Amino acid sequence: MASWLKDAFDNPKPVIAMLHLSALPGDTLYDSAAGMRAIVERARRELHALQEGGVDGVLISNEFSLPYLTQTEPITAISMARIIGELVDEIEIPYGVNVLWDGRASIDLAMATGAQYVREIFTGVYASDFGLWNTNVGEVARHRHRIGADHVKLFFNIVPESATYLAERDLESLTRSTVFATLPDALCVSGLTAGAPTDTQTLAIAKSAAGDVPVFVNTGVRSHNIAEQLSIADGAIVGTTFKKDGVFENEVDAARVTELITAAQEFRRSL
User: What pTM was computed for the model?
Assistant: First the structure.
């Protein structure tokens, strides 16, 4: 396993929780009557529930900026920066950011807010629910270096949600070439959509081909399957499972956080 992962998190096979921000200014679902204050207060409640439940890290994303853009408008990252600025003194664990689906904006936001990592789609060309989706990992990597953000770790989602890779290549060869040619700090393997289970066979293929690059299970982790998932993966990113009744739109339920983290801790004690 990469040494940076051991240095970044207190526990082996860390569980990183998603902190889904409500729709932001400029988004179709933004509640202009409630305004930014309501977004900040919900994020604060969820942050504290996640931290008190024992998660190892938090990943702050504009999950409710539906439908997503592949090149976001400036107002999105600016709004996220304000929210993180109001909460940063209350964040007690390693945190990252994700400006969906914009790798460059994610890195900019991380640099501006002190986030340690980002998760994004950095490689590939896809047919997606929001049109033809192209990337330019070389440009983004150079941008990260140019703004002094080499310390920001990049989590590459290599099985993106709501999209299909256009090239006819199997996951093993795709993983090997991604690791060799694009220098990811970690890889994420997902199911079809947020909350959808990640196939363990798919996860195992990516893990076997990734070499020393950590592989995270990115969707569908639950208390009953986290031991199985972490027996393969180097960590987990968890969002929907932590919500009340396991419903994507709901707020974080502290009891569900505790339940999953307890299961993760039981598994990690066996390592």
Answer: 0.96
